[in-house]
Design goal:
single chain; cell cycle; cell inner membrane
């Protein structure tokens, strides 16, 4: 009985280490794939928010240009405030 080794043979340890490594590697691949899907989903959400914000910005710029159009301001000044463009006789220059 003295010639029988106790424990596992040397090749078995290598096989066990390889099995555990493959198991850990497969779990890591699964985790990274899930994480990648989450980040991709978040990216698409952020791109959607960006596109909506850019569309709103374009509408606001168009609205601002409409509100500040010279013809509109002149019409409002004439109709609502009873303003008119002064004639050359009405203009007086003041020396500093």
């Amino acid at each position: 009985m003295k010639g029988i080794k106790q424990g596992l043979p040397g090749g078995t340890w290598l096989l066990l280490i390889l099995f555990v490594s493959v198991l850990i590697s497969s779990m890591a691949v699964s985790y990274v794939a899930h994480w990648n899907r989450q980040l991709l989903s978040e990216l698409f959400q952020q791109l959607s928010v960006r596109d909506k914000t850019q569309a709103e910005w374009g509408r606001l710029v168009l609205e601002q240009s409409t509100w500040t159009a010279h013809g509109r301001i002149e019409t409002l000044a004439t109709e609502q405030l009873n303003m008119h463009v002064p004639s050359a006789v009405d203009i007086k220059l003041v020396q500093p």
